[in-house]
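In the current project phase, our protein records have gained a structure token line. A sample record follows, to show the layout:
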Amino acid sequence: MPMLSLDDILPNTVAAQDVFENNQAKMPLIRKGAIITAEYLYGLRRRGISEMHVKEAIVTGGSGFDASGLKKRDTSLSGMPFEKSPAAILPKAKKDIIKAQRDMHLAIGGRDKGAIEQAIDRMEEIISGIVEHMAETPNTPFNIASVQNDQEFMYHHNLSVAVIAIAISQGMGLSSHDQIQIGTCAVLHDMGKLMLSAEIQLKVPPYTEEEEAEVRTHAEIGYDSLKMWGILTEDQREAIRYHHERLDGSGYPQGLRINDIPLWAKIIAVADVYEAMTNARPPAKSASPTATLEHLLMHVGIHFDKAVVQSLYNKIEFYPMGSFVMLSNEQFALVTLTKRTLRPVVRILSTNTEVELADPKNANIKIDRVVSYREAIRRKR
């Protein structure tokens, strides 16, 4: 049975082994065979436990999260294969880089240059470990969905953009040194937003025309601040400054065109758009990886560099195993085999039947969007 990070375990999964608080504990916190509720997951995290052995998903009656319905198992998911694609990064790296971003945010608020520099140095150290970890499986597409999260949105967005940018850089054959440099400036690409007014930072789009104009200053603010503090290389600072530039000159802040835009900025631009579209800030609805890729391809040579988009296509696992999706026929399904494609093998939740979307006979069925476990179980048909 797989050992999974708690971040990758869904409520109502079954414990495959007893879970102990530490090696000396005689009584388990959770016994083998117990159904893991959201409350259990929360409690385990509070006790410092980050992973556990699990087996198949079993869904309770009602919403799927009601502890009083634990005996009302839903046989449409009982025994369903529940393999999950491995995450692009290790849980500890994810936790550490989120903390480093929080530390930097606090340091910016306190105008503490030393603490800002220390937090950024820590981020670069973590990014170096992420690059090393991702290099262990150079021929395997990366599961970015495991990094994405709508909690503490900005921090997770920055981390996801960094991981995607590293994957793209790896696919383009850039050196490990360059991947670390790109990953570091990618996780910092929106740091200028931390220096905008509190009203703008807290507001959920859409913005007014005046607010949009303020938001567009974030790239220059991030660049100017890093340059003033003497942090990062000039190449990294320019990648942060120009990540909203577009090949046709329609971007900002300077309206640069094709060859005037640094490669690192082109990479972060694609990573940023892919992450923002597939993991939209609530209450906006996220687009499917398919729709997002179609958007990127439609704008190749206009907004985005062809080689960068091609590398994204080669290196990202668009529908990882274990993902829940809604199909164009309004059925909910679980991805059971990715096949490194936009048309994976899925299992319909309502019938427990397998559908290979790549089969020509299923050409009229497509993935409409990725959904949460909660939505899939509540609305399965």
Q: What stands out?
A: The two ends are 29 Å apart (CA to CA). Residues 57-79 have pLDDT under 50 and may be disordered. The beta strands are 3-5, 13-15, 35-36, 51-57, 324-327, 332-337, 345-348, 354-356, 367-371.
